[in-house]
Design goal:
This protein has four helices and no strands. It is mostly helical. It folds into two domains: 44 residues, no CATH class; 44 residues. It is elongated, with a radius of gyration of 28 Å.
């Protein structure tokens, strides 16, 4: 068989399988078809796929220590404003000590 005939055969098989499975995919309550968009062969080969044909999940990048510290500093500034509004000055002093320690670590990175 030629590559064109193989491609046509693959499309015919995929269409037949999809038609057979359509009633399983369809939402019975709302009458709509669930999102099912098959990949083209090129998309399949471009993805990172394991031995069983499953697309591998690539976890998101973990934030750096500096980004984590920056987030903590931002949260402390918000808490500082809340404590100042509530006039809890003793807690503000303790918060200032924590803020200074984190700021020092942040500046060292």
């Amino acid at each position: 068989m030629t590559p064109e005939q193989l491609e046509l055969l693959a499309e015919m098989i995929a269409e037949k399988v999809f038609n057979k499975l359509k009633h399983y995919i369809e939402d019975k309550q709302n009458g709509f078809l669930a999102a099912f968009d098959p990949m083209s062969p090129q998309e399949f080969f471009d993805k990172e796929v394991d031995a069983f044909g499953n697309i591998r999940y690539t976890p998101p990048r973990q934030p750096s220590k500096k980004e984590l510290l920056a987030g903590q500093l931002h949260e402390l500034k918000i808490k500082w404003a809340q404590l100042l509004e509530e006039e809890k000055y003793e807690l503000i002093v303790e918060l200032k000590e924590i803020y200074d320690k984190i700021k020092k670590d942040y500046d060292n990175l």
